[in-house]
Amino acid sequence: MAFASCTFIFFLLLLPLLAIAQTDGRVAVGASLTAAHNASPWLSTSGDFAFGFHPTDNEDLFLLSIWFDKIPGKTVVWYAHEDGNPVLVPEGSKIVLNAENGLLLSNARGELVWKSAVARADVAYGVMNDTGNFAIKSRNSDMLWESFAHPTDTLLPAQIMKINGQLFSRQKENNFSRGRFLLSLRENGDLVLNIVNLPTNLVYDGDGPYYNSHTSDPANESNSGNQLIFNESGDVYVLRRNGQRSLLGTGSTLPTPREDFYQRATLDFDGVFAQYYYPKINTGNDSWSTVWYQPENICLRVGGLGSGACGFNSICSLNENGRPTCNCPPGFSFLDPNDNYGSCERDGELDCHEDGQISKEDLYDIEVLPDTNWPTSDYERYGTNYDEQDCKTSCLNDCFCVVAIYGGGSCWMKKLPLSNGRKNSSDKSKAFIKVPRGDRPPSFPNLREADDDKNKRNLIITGSVLLGTSVFVNLALIGALCLSFFFIYKKKLSKIDQGGLETNLRLFTYKELAEATNGFEEKLGRGAFGVVYKGTTRMSASGSRISIAVKKLDRVVTDGDKEFKTEINVIGRTHHKNLVQLLGICEEGEQRLLVYEFLSNGTLAEYLFGNRKPSWCQRTQIALGVARGLVYLHEECSTQIIHCDIKPQNILLDDNYDARISDFGLSKLLMMDQTQTKTAIRGTKGYVAPEWFRNLPVTVKVDVYSFGVLLLEIICCRRSVVDEEMGDEGNIILTYWAYDCYSEGKIDALVSEDMEVMNDTKSLERFLMVAFWCIQEDPCLRPSMRKVIQMLEGVVHVTVPPNPSPFSTIG
Ligand SMILES: *[C@@H]1O[C@H](CO)[C@@H](O)[C@H](O)[C@H]1NC(C)=O
Ligand SMILES: *[C@@H]1O[C@H](CO)[C@@H](O)[C@H](O)[C@H]1NC(C)=O
Ligand SMILES: *[C@@H]1O[C@H](CO)[C@@H](O)[C@H](O)[C@H]1NC(C)=O
Ligand SMILES: *[C@@H]1O[C@H](CO)[C@@H](O)[C@H](O)[C@H]1NC(C)=O
Ligand SMILES: *[C@@H]1O[C@H](CO)[C@@H](O)[C@H](O)[C@H]1NC(C)=O
Ligand SMILES: *[C@@H]1O[C@H](CO)[C@@H](O)[C@H](O)[C@H]1NC(C)=O
């Protein structure tokens, strides 16, 4: 009795083991699996492979797949796909083995999403084979369908790929979406790797594949490749029709005995096709090891259309495992910070100043990267006896040039987007990358003075003299010339030391400006700081006359010269496409004049409130431009600048109707303490933030408030405050009226039922919500200008704003 019960207990203990041992991997018709976390899959006899629903990085989606079940991480070797695009299904989806159709995958609502195309409607059973192949067999054991015949990115031992067979890469290790790389066995017998355009799947083959097995023979077909074979003992080769084998990897280091290792050959997401092994007996810290990989250097082999092995504007270098590593060049960073294989974007835009007002050397620096090249982004080549310095200078002075590559006496100019970037020591070329100087002050003071013109004229004269004289005289002349330059330079330096200015601003004399403005004849307008006059001048001897706006300051700090210079230095160092550029100054006696570039299209106020309403598209661009300019002033320039008077009269429009902020950086000249409001309120009625009245510290958030009001004006094309006789009761104050309309769901009233805007209510609503966040009474609730841009662009979700002025009453 005791013996019997012992046997029984022993048998019970054994039962689970037997159950595993007894599975022959067979799946009966009618069997099914449901997608869920921890659902058990269909296992192969040995339990090495499993077929079932594999969870993905997206918690809610599963992938019908086959994986190595005994390996931690459960490496996926096959998944249900259409042309390489994975069939991802939600929890509750179901796979059934059906007598007519083989495998049927339906989603949680019972809709068919994928099926195996069986050869005949005669399914007897399925089997998860120990080779990792899921096979569907007929009653007389014919093969009706097998996963080995529909590979995704991986081949296993015993798997054969026929002519026209393909492997598709994934997006990322854990993102199964189709990637940019394709392996295919061509009709002619070549095994090739290509880059593919997504999402159209066009194969870029103009410059040839980036790997080619060269196993075709057009002269004698019987020498051409016919199959790609991964044989049981672990060799991967192209089998030719004549029986010859061309191994893919040479110098194989697959350890022995080979039966002790799992193997696979995968077209990885980085475009490399490689064979791997993994010990079947776990030793604790195992991983997949590489036997061989193709191509030998993916960074060098990719060319033609597309970005190359890495993204656009990126540099590919090969790591010690033969894998590409992608890096952004100086002045660039990854578009998606989480995607180290993606494209890089430029940190700031390079402005193209046409009229030589600012020398390129002052705007940009050149950074040198050795052994780097972007061979497919040329637009100009200089040669043949060009030197490095010529190459740098050519790039600096060429608007389109992003990078110049110098090598062997030639200089190649490269344009955006840079593609196929690579670093390789055998390249023997140097990359000169143009980067904005940023906030660094120029290396030495560089004030262009009025007598510049005279120097230039002297040079021209001496130049023509040089042409017609003897070597000796020339040498003497050159010596004299150098000396005179030395003295002129010294003289300049001493002048600048006195002035204490360290910018690229030109110093004008009062007389010059009086001439430029024809005796201060044409008045452009009157700002908070003084009257603005139109004028024209030459910024250099060779330059053509340009239009300028001259601002004669009428209220200037009494604290003296020093403060004025500090402020002008701050303003003079700002460079941004959404700011009006200060070109020069004049300080003579009591006179303080500022010389700005002249913008032809007037102020935003004239544009917005004029007879012809600008289009919605233009208005959104202007709003974004102002926001960008403010981000620069608040966060990006060397000294933070609070504008304090953002309003449509202070926004100018350039030739393209892009917004340019003017009058920034001047508030300190009015003896304003920017952190306390002991003196008069700065700013303009209707735009000033409540903290001005409340004795609260004044921060960049006052500009955010004014921007919010401006944004509402841009949206509604009306002024923030209208005359009482013109407005109805309730819409006199724009901010109140806009919020009322918004909260009552009547936003169409705000844009006077403008059809263009009403077709884009999503943007309209987003812009309104951003505006209400900006005009919150509590400065802490207002977003930063950077956040404002992200919200306006729709990059960041905008939450529903609270009532901006809950404590105020209309009055
Ligand atoms: C996978 O990559 C594709 C294409 O880049 C992207 O659209 C998708 O959101 C990614 N999926 C996951 C789960 O990250
Ligand atoms: C199943 O695996 C065995 C070896 O385990 C192999 O001999 C057989 O060919 C495989 N069958 C299929 C259909 O892959
Ligand atoms: C093709 O090549 C095979 C050997 O690879 C050779 O036996 C055969 O004669 C060749 N045929 C022709 C037409 O050259
Ligand atoms: C696999 O291929 C290699 C190289 O051609 C060969 O030596 C080996 O015998 C093959 N193994 C099997 C099981 O066919
Ligand atoms: C674990 O990994 C280290 C370094 O990769 C290696 O030196 C060590 O031999 C490994 N241990 C085992 C048990 O495989
Ligand atoms: C550079 O390219 C050569 C072939 O042109 C290659 O042999 C070498 O390994 C490459 N070096 C690096 C660091 O990529």
Automatic annotation (TrEMBL):
GO terms for biological process: recognition of pollen. Belongs to the protein kinase superfamily. Ser/Thr protein kinase family. It is a single-pass type I membrane protein. It is found in: Membrane. This is Receptor-like serine/threonine-protein kinase. One of its GO terms (cellular component) is membrane. Residues 28-149 form the Bulb-type lectin domain. Pfam families: B_lectin, PK_Tyr_Ser-Thr, S_locus_glycop. Residues 1-21 form the signal peptide. PROSITE patterns: BULB_LECTIN, PROTEIN_KINASE_ATP, PROTEIN_KINASE_DOM, PROTEIN_KINASE_ST. ATP binds at residue 552. Keywords: ATP-binding, Disulfide bond, EGF-like domain, Glycoprotein, Kinase, Lectin, Membrane, Nucleotide-binding, Receptor, Serine/threonine-protein kinase, Signal, Transferase, Transmembrane, Transmembrane helix.
